[in-house]
Write a structure and sequence with these properties.
Blueprint (H helix, E strand, L loop, with lengths): L17 H10 L24 H8 L3 H4 L3 H7 L10 H4 L2 H9 L1 H4 L14 H16 L14 H11 L34 H4 L2 H9 L1 H4 L12 H11 L15 E3 L1 E8 L12 H8 L6 H4 L2 E9 L13 E11 L3 E10 L2 E5 L2 E6 L6 E9 L2 E11 L5 E8 L2 E5 L5 E4 L15 H13 L2 H4 L44 H12 L10 H11 L7 E2 L2 E2 L3 H4 L12 H4 L7 H4 L2 H10 L16 H4 L2 H9 L12 H11 L28 H4 L2 H9 L1 H4 L24 H12 L17 E2 L6 E7 L3 E8 L4 E6 L4 E7 L3 E2 L17 E5 L6 E3 L17 E8 L5 E7 L2 E10 L6 E9 L7 E8 L2 E3 L4 E4 L3 E7 L5 E5 L2 E7 L6 E9 L1
Antiparallel strand pairs: 1-12, 2-3, 2-4, 4-9, 4-12, 5-8, 5-10, 6-7, 6-9, 10-11, 13-14, 15-20, 16-17, 17-18, 18-19, 19-21, 22-27, 23-24, 24-25, 25-26, 26-33, 27-32, 28-29, 29-30, 30-33, 31-32
Length: 960
């Protein structure tokens, strides 16, 4: 059976040229002058003011044996060896034996010294055996069933490994995009992986990839924010030699039929399925446990095999999904067209490539895609989900020599092979040997680095070498040309040894703390941040690796879309809080960039945010922006299509840009310092050389002179004020396009249907002034107001017309649910929750004035209410003037009107109230004295309704 991946040759470990990399890159020595040595990424670049020997002291953890003061320890920030508390679960016995016997042969380039190198051969063999049993006793190996080798996961893992950032440090196994071969020299300059297939299992590698800091706390191997599904895919790829059938078809057990997994949803998704919807959750979450969010919505109900793609195995009619996975046997080389006909969404992948995208919630729809295939077997995956209504799934193909037909069962197969570590040996822990091994662990100095919690205090080493401050012969011990006696052998290159000797000889200089700028350099070098970023013209990706920085989407953003940003002046660019979050969580703000920001651990980078700010002048407070609500509206106009059209490139919240997918605008003020933002808008090229961001204020002069008469600072402040609302800000004009927009041209229009936020008996009103409202006829309340376009009725013009349509415009303000008026004997009584018919309210319809503007009428406890909102044109947006009249033959003396609610309601000097900083309320006519109170965790603006001759009037002006 011909696999869908290239054959993989067995790994052959020969002496490499890694010293050459260290020598040539770190100290400029001849390529052929050195032999195998520890691969230390911190020493790959010459950085001004950075002592390479000092970096090596930290990366080799020399003070673990030689000791040193607290100041030296803080300055070196030494790399801690892997935690061995669960070594027996994580590491195979065959690996432990080989690695302890000769670490540099098992993992060329390792920084683990050969601690036992000077022991006689026979004694060394016995010590290794005892240590192996001791380490194996520290954790219980997983006795669960082995993970199955899945072709789709293999392909997914290959893509992830070569795109999310793994190959910025580790060896790539595939050429970069558009290249025919892997660039020369990368193996020699990569952090070694060793023989992983010999070392561990898929399950243990998955745990490690998700949280490497648990095992390697120093952050040299950071977390990449991988989901369990992604980690599983990468683990299967890295351990692919554990399933020979993935590379050699003669060793694969080929079973007839396609594998399926049947899922059921516990509730209907709130959004149509897509890249972030339910179908992607299914496809990306199996094998492995589902994500926390997915567990709330879906469960794996059953698995099995079937002879064809279809939904016959379903156990309910609605809210379920299928995932099909296996091999497709292609009869001949050529072009093939694949089809999925489905209700609702489906996708079809070949060799990990999306060929047919028929996703989304829809009726019976067929879509197709073409791909060129070679004769033989190819990995195929189909995902399908059903919400409600009709359901269907049919998968077809056509190719050389045959017309379109449903894919027959005879060409479908799946693999029956488990992934198991290579070179397995018969092994059981011998308690006697384990006890002796524990003693060796102390006596040989292993515990100097690998302190192990051993049923009490950590194991401590039985000896210490001469203190670092007392070293008087830099050319002896571990730094000798041929280490002897108690010295350990790191297999240092001549260049590394020379650098270390020089630093030890001048060790007095290490007693002083590093200044911020130099400490930043040391940290970036130790964690190899320079592999992705440059700062102050130092570092940055080497040319041979640049091709592995990719975009995850189709848009062409050039280097801006694939290369990580530079760090020059980053302390003046980013808010300290955001920088801290970015460093500690790896928060992603560039979704188009495949490479991820790693998580190095707070203990390793916690100092960086403050150091960046201090070094770059970012510790000065920003100038406050004093912009009004109206200014922020002008900022919205500038961002929109009628202004500077920022949305032509930038995403905005959940909305995609009109063009290329640049950084999301709603995150700008959370990320950036105001002063940097101001200067960047005026001259983006000065702060980000090579950016395609244009300047709309060249030489500080505004291009748009309609807003604020072209006043540059005020325009930028207005944009900042608008963007400061973050995801609560209304989308700018031009971003939302209705498919069936209802437009109010010369007079108001009424739309009665299900409206999101206004209930099932909603009455929507769109006015020519582009101010709109929705009235809730169930609760007799003004439910919502907004500006701009009125409503998109397309949802209610197709199928069964189900669902709630939301406002099409912007500046949406939703008013509190519950009754608009209430009888309260005491002013501090809680506002009633009961409303509608059960509370005594009766909707009495609506009537129109001469301009066809509606007045809403309702009754409550003998009081007749007429509520007429009227739009008032404004400079940029209309406002509402709302007149309420109350009539009663027996007026109650305790009637209250709730004019507004919010987190904060603040009175202003001109007799207005500001609600949550985004809406102003004015009450020029009131039947009583308004008051603000706190109740139920929110502020309320209440007006007592005092009747005169059976009538009362209240006028409310709303500016938002």
């Amino acid at each position: 059976m011909q696999p869908s991946v290239l054959p993989i040759s067995p790994r052959v470990y020969l002496p490499s040229l890694r010293d050459l990399a260290c020598a040539a890159l770190a100290l400029g020595l001849s390529l052929w002058a050195v032999a195998a040595a520890p691969m230390v990424t911190a020493g790959q670049r010459t950085l001004a003011g950075v002592d390479q020997g000092e970096l090596l002291l930290g990366e080799l953890n020399c003070i673990a044996c030689h000791g040193g003061g607290e100041g030296l320890s803080r300055r070196l920030a030494s790399k801690q060896p892997p935690a061995l508390g669960e070594a027996g679960a994580r590491l195979t016995p065959q690996f432990l034996r080989a690695f302890l016997t000769n670490p540099h042969a098992e993992k060329p380039g390792t920084t683990m010294p050969d601690v036992l190198a000077t022991l006689p051969a026979r004694e060394k063999t016995e010590v290794v055996e005892d240590l192996m049993h001791y380490l194996a006793s520290l954790g219980e190996a997983d006795a669960g069933p082995a993970i199955a080798a899945e072709p789709f996961k293999l392909e997914q893992g290959k893509r992830l490994y070569h795109s999310v950032g793994c190959v910025t440090c580790h060896e790539p196994f595939e050429p970069p995009t558009g290249a025919s071969a892997i660039p020369a020299g990368l193996k020699e300059t990569s952090v070694p992986l060793g023989n992983l297939a010999h070392k561990t299992t898929v399950r243990e590698l998955v745990k490690f990839l998700i949280d490497p800091l648990k095992t390697r706390p120093s952050g040299r191997m950071p977390a990449m924010n991988l989901s369990e599904a992604e980690a599983t895919a990468i683990a299967i790829y890295l351990l692919r030699e554990q399933a020979p059938g993935l590379a050699d078809p003669t060793q694969m057990e080929r079973l007839a039929g396609i594998r399926f997994h049947y899922f059921e949803t516990t509730r209907q998704p709130t959004q149509p399925a897509g890249d972030a919807g339910i179908i992607a959750e299914f496809a990306d979450s199996y094998p492995g446990h589902l994500s926390a969010d997915a567990r709330d919505r879906i469960r794996l109900a059953s698995s099995g095999t079937t002879g064809k793609f279809g939904i016959e195995e379903r156990e309910r009619e609605d809210f379920y999904a299928f995932l099909f996975d296996g091999y497709l046997s292609v009869p001949a080389d050529g072009d093939y067209t694949f089809y999925t006909l489905s209700d609702d969404g489906s996708r079809l992948y070949i060799n990990g490539e999306l060929v047919v995208n028929n996703d989304g919630e829809h009726g019976e729809t067929e879509k197709s895609g073409k791909i060129t295939l070679t004769k033989g077997d190819h990995a195929i995956r189909v995902t399908f989900f059903e919400n409600a209504g009709g359901e269907a799934l049919r998968v077809s193909w056509q190719g050389p020599g045959f017309r379109k037909q449903e894919i027959p069962g005879g060409v479908l197969a799946h693999m029956g092979q488990a992934m198991k570590p290579t070179g397995a040996i018969e092994f059981a822990v011998d308690a006697t040997k384990a006890t002796r091994g524990r003693a060796h662990f102390q006596q040989q100095g292993c515990a100097n680095c690998h302190g192990i919690p051993d049923h009490g205090p950590a194991l401590l080493a039985a000896f210490r070498q001469k203190n670092f401050a007392e070293l008087n012969s830099p050319e002896a011990g571990c730094l000798a040309d041929q280490p002897q006696g108690a010295a350990v052998n790191y297999h240092l290159s001549a260049a590394q040894r020379a650098a270390l000797r020089q630093t030890v000889a001048n060790r007095v200089a290490l007693e002083q703390p590093l200044p911020d700028k130099l400490r930043i350099k040391h940290t970036l070098a130790r964690l190899d941040c320079y592999a992705c970023h440059y700062r102050d013209a130092e570092g940055g990706p080497v040319e041979a690796r640049r091709g592995y920085f990719r975009m995850s989407g189709e848009a062409d953003l050039g280097d801006e879309g694939r290369m990580p940003p530079h760090l020059t002046g980053v302390g003046a660019k980013l808010n300290a809080a955001w920088l801290q979050e970015l460093l500690s969580k790896g928060t992603k703000v560039r979704p188009y960039m495949a490479t991820r920001m790693p998580v190095f651990g707070e203990a390793n980078i916690g100092h960086l945010a403050a150091a960046f700010a201090s070094a770059d002048g970012g510790d000065e407070p920003d100038r406050p922006v004093l912009a009004s609500i109206e200014d922020a509206k002008f900022g919205r106009k500038l961002v929109g299509s009628a202004g500077l059209s920022c949305i032509a490139c930038h995403d905005f919240g959940e909305f995609k840009s009109l063009g290329i997918p640049a950084l999301n605008l709603t995150q700008m003020t959370r990320r950036l310092r105001k002063e940097w933002f101001h200067q960047y808008l005026i001259n983006p090229f000065a702060l980000r050389p090579g950016t395609r961001m244009p300047s709309f204020w060249p030489d500080g002069q505004a291009v748009n002179n309609e807003v604020f008469n072209g006043h540059t600072d005020r325009q930028i402040d207005a944009i900042w004020a608008f963007l400061s609302r973050g995801e609560l800000a209304s989308p700018p004009d031009g971003l939302i396009q209705g498919q069936w927009e209802i437009v109010a041209e010369t007079e108001p229009v009424i739309y009665r249907h299900f409206i999101e936020g206004a209930g099932t008996r909603a009455i929507g009103v769109g006015y020519p002034e582009k101010a709109n409202l929705a009235w809730d006829a169930n609760e007799m309340r003004l439910a919502m107001i907004w500006h701009g376009p009125f409503i998109d009725a397309s949802m209610h013009r197709q199928g069964r017309g189900q669902g709630f349509a939301g406002p099409l415009g912007h500046n949406v303000v939703k008013f509190a649910e519950g009754p608009p008026i209430a009888l309260m004997d005491e002013a501090n009584a809680p506002w009633p929750a009961e409303t509608g018919l059960t509370a005594g309210f009766r909707m009495q319809g609506y009537q129109f004035d001469d301009l066809m503007r509606p007045s809403f009428r309702y009754g409550f406890q003998g009081v007749q209410v007429v509520d007429q909102p009227v739009p008032v044109p404004g400079v940029i947006d209309a406002t509402f003037k709302r007149t309420l009249t109350f009539t009663s033959e027996r007026p109650p003396g305790n009637l209250w009107f709730r004019a507004a609610t919010g987190a904060d309601i603040i009175p202003t000097a001109n007799g207005e109230w500001t609600v949550d900083g985004r809406m102003r309320i004015k009450l020029p006519v009131t039947p009583g004295t308004p008051r603000v109170r706190k109740a139920g965790g929110q502020a309320e603006l209440l007006v007592p309704v005092k009747f005169t001759n059976g009538q009362a009037e209240l006028v409310q002006e709303i500016v938002w």
